[in-house]
Amino acid sequence: MSQVQLDSELPNRRIKAGRNLHLKKFIEDCKRFIITQKIGFVSLLIILIVVAVAIIAPIIAPFDPISQDRAAFLAAPNSQHVMGTDDLGRDVFSRLVYGSRISLLVGIVTVVISIILGTLIGMISGYFGGIVDMIIQRIMDAIMSVPALILALFIAALLGPAIQNVIIALVIIEVPRFSRIVRGEMLRIRESNFVEASRSVGASSFRIIMKHGLPNMMAPIIVMASLAFGQTIIAEASLSFLGIGTPPPNPSWGLMLSDASMYMESAPWLVLFPGLALSILVLAFNLFGDALRDFLDPKMS
Amino acid sequence: MIEYIVRRLIFGIFVLLIMTAFIFIIMRAVPGDVVTLQLANSGATAEQMDALKAEMGLDKSVLGQLIDWIKDAVQGNLGNSLWSGQQVSEIILDRLPVTIQLAVMSIVLAIIIGIPIGVISAVKQNTFIDHFLKVISIGGLSIPNFWLGLILLTVLSLALNWIPPLGYQSFMENPFVNMQQMFLPAICLAITLSASIVRMTRSAVLEVLHSEFIRTVRAKGAKEGIVIFKHALRNSLVSVITLIGLQIGYLLGGTVVLESIFALPGLGSLIFESVLVRDYPIVQSTVLVFGAMFLLVNLVVDVMYGWVDPRIRAK
C-alpha cells in the first residue's frame, strides 16, 4: 500500500520541482529585464497603470462618461472639469478614463484571438508544407496585399459600427502576420536536430509540435504581440475617428477626436487630451516590445 | 531578370484574383445592399426593388456575379457607380493622382528626415543622443497620424490664423495652392514612416560600421566622413528601400484618414465614401487598385535591389 502511494507521488513531486524551477528562472529573467532594459521597464509600468485605471475607472472618474450637462458644454479645463467638457457637456477626463477600457479591450481580444488563430494556421502551414502550405500562404498573401487600414475599413464598414465588428476586422488583418512568423519558425525548427531526434525515437507529429514547436517560438510571438497591440489600438482609434468603429456614445478615444475635430479652434483641449492618451499608451507598447526584442534576442541590437 | 519580373507579375495577378473573390464574398455575405439603401424611404414596392436589382445584376448568384465582373474587368470595364452611374475606371483615374502625389511626397519627406537622424544615431551609438533619438523615433511611430493632422491644423489656425486653402486644385492647375493643401497631410504620413527609417538606417549603418571592410577603409586612413557617407550609408540603402516597400501598405492606408481630414479628393476618401453607401463596383475596384499598387511597389523594390547592390544582381 505504502509502496503504491510513493510511486504515484514521485512524478507529482517531480512536476512540482520543475514548476518551481520555471518560476525561479522567470523571476530571475524579470530582474535581469528591469536592470538591462530600463526604458522597457518604465513602459511596462505605464501599461500596468493604464490597465489599473481601466479596471477601477468608476472610482477614478468624477462624472458619468455618457451623461450630458447642457449647462456646461465646451467648458475649458477648470477645477471641476480638469480636462474641460465636450460639445454635449460631458466631462472629458471621465470619458478618457472610461475610454481606456475600449482601447485595451479591443487590443487584448484582437491580439489574443490573432495569436491563437495565427499560430494554428502558421503551424499547420509550416509543419505539413507542400500543397497545404501553398494554398494557405497564397490566401495570406492576398489578405496582406491590401493595406491594413483599408481592409479593416472595408470589413468594419460592411459589418456596421460595433465593437465586436471592429475586433473581427482587426483580427482578419493581424492573423496573417502572426501566421507568417510562426510558419517561418516552424520551418526552421522542422529542420533542426532535436526534432529529427525526437522523430527518430517515434514521437508523433502532434507531440513534436506541442513539445518542440510551441516553446521555441514563444519569443518572437511575444514581441510581435506587444507591437501588434500598439497597431491595433491605433487602428481602432482610426476606425472610430472615421465613424465606422466604436459607436457613440461610447467614450472611444478615436471617437472623441472625431467629435473634437469640429471644435478645433473654440475648444482645442478636446483635440489634445484623447490624442495624448492614445500616443502615450501606444508608445508604451512599442517601447516595451522593442525592449523585449532586445532582451530576448540580443543578436538584433 | 525579365523572366523574374514576369513571374512576379503573374504571381501578383493571381494574388489579386484571390483578393477579388475574398472581397466579393464578404460584400455579398453582409446584409443590406445598395437598392435597399437607396429606396429605403422612397416607398418602393418589393417588386420594384427586385426589378432594379435584376437590372444591376444583383439577382445572380455570387459566383455568377464574380465571373461577370472578372470578364468585364479583363476588358478594362470596371462597371459603373451604382449611385452616380459614372464609369468606375473614370472615377478612379480621376482620383489616383492625388493619392500618388501624397504618397510620393510622404516618402521623399520621410527619407529626408529619417536617414540623417538614423546615421547620427548609429555614429553616436549608446550615447545619450542615441537613446534620446530612439525614444523620439519610436514616439513618431506611436503618434496616430490623424491626431498629428488635427494638432497641426489647430496650432496653425490658432497661432498663425492660417488654414489650408479650401477647394482642391491639382499641381498642374495651381502648384502654389496644391502644395499648401498637400504639405500638411504629407508631413503627417512622413513622420511615422521616417521613424521606422531612422530605426532601420541605424541598425544597417551599425552593421556595416562593424564589418571587416570598413576596418580596411579606416586603416587606409580615410576620413570618418567618407567612411560613413560613401561606404556605410550606401551599403545600408538596401534595407531602407526594403523598408519603404514594406511600409507602403501603411502609407496607403493612412491616406484614407488624412484625405478625409484635409478634404483631398483621392482614392482614400473615395473608398471611405463608397463603402458607407455600399457602392459595390467602386469599393471593389478601389481595394484592388490599392492592392495592385502595393504589389507593384514591392516589385519595383525588388528590382531596385539589383541596381543598388551589384552582389544581388550577380545572383
UniProtKB/TrEMBL annotation, chain A:
The name this protein goes by in its record: ABC transporter permease
Keyword entries, A-Z: Cell membrane, Membrane, Transmembrane, Transmembrane helix, Transport
PROSITE patterns registered for this protein in UniProt: ABC_TM1
Subcellular location: Cell membrane
Source organism per UniProt: Ureibacillus sinduriensis BLB-1 = JCM 15800
An individual GO BP term: transmembrane transport
A Pfam family hit: BPD_transp_1
Annotated Gene Ontology cellular component terms: plasma membrane
From TrEMBL, chain B:
InterPro entries: BPD_transp_1_N (IPR045621), MetI-like (IPR000515), MetI-like_sf (IPR035906)
Pfam families associated with the record: BPD_transp_1, BPD_transp_1_N
Protein name stated in the entry: Glutathione ABC transporter permease
UniProt feature coiled coil, ranges: none
Transmembrane segments: 9-30, 102-123, 135-163, 183-201, 237-262, 282-308
Any Gene Ontology CC annotation: plasma membrane
Domain of life: Bacteria
Transmembrane is among the record's keywords: yes
Entry's Gene Ontology BP terms: transmembrane transport
Subcellular location(s) of the protein: Cell membrane
CDD domains found in the cross-reference section: TM_PBP2
Lineage, top ranks: Bacteria, Bacillati, Bacillota, Bacilli, Bacillales
PROSITE patterns (alphabetical): ABC_TM1 (PS50928)
Family of the protein in this entry: Belongs to the binding-protein-dependent transport system permease family.
Primary localisation category: membrane
Organism listed in the record: Ureibacillus sinduriensis BLB-1 = JCM 15800
Lipid bilayer topology: Multi-pass membrane protein
Sorted UniProt keywords: Cell membrane, Membrane, Transmembrane, Transmembrane helix, Transport
